[in-house]
Task: structure prediction
Amino acid sequence: MPAEDRAAAWDPAHEALKVFALTPNYNKWIFSAFREYLEGRTVLEVGCGIGNMSRYFSGVSSRFLALDTSETFIGHLKVDQPGLDVRQLDIAGGRTGVLASEGIEAVVSVNVMEHVADDAGAFLNISRLLRPGGRLLLFVPALSSIYGTLDEAVSHCRRYDRDELRSKAERAGFEVEKLYFSNFIGVLGWYLNGKVLKVRQFPMLQPLLFDKFVPLIAALERLFPPPFGMNLILVARKK
Result:
């Protein structure tokens, strides 16, 4: 087994991706927040990982491209979903200009920006490659106050507070259309695991159990938008 594959096999972030591949209700919940902005459009997914969300995004877009920095993840995705246009590229790097001619109308990224050290640079690169009026669609971990050992274990550089996320999007030339919290119930579990119990191994069973309750939680949050939550959802338009 190549060295990168051996490392990935024990990488907590990789383990987390494999767990969330088994949470269809949760993945569909995230997809539902972005679907209307992806249908019939040329879509770029930033940080596709092993393709947990790619199958949903590619299914409604007119043309779909995906990026990731991991050769291992890309290899996994190409086996599971052959035919996708997947490229090894760092969104915060200096080579994203090659995408400017692709006519990208929407950039979507789920649980990725928190891993990017230079997220301000990533926001700017996304703005440059999007067509005018194109949309940035982000799903990120929320609440810096609950950053703990689990975040460290899965290589999170940060958790986002609402004002911080809005400011970074606006500085990159976006007009924020929607910015709201999601998954209020997840805050307790993450806080207990990462701040109280100091857990460093990603809990495999908890997401699978949580997935059973997602339809109920989603229905409740549609009726009563939560004042805080495990994640932030951003919809922003390039000016």
Q: What stands out?
A: Strands lie at 42-46, 63-68, 85-88, 104-110, 130-141, 174-182, 231-238.
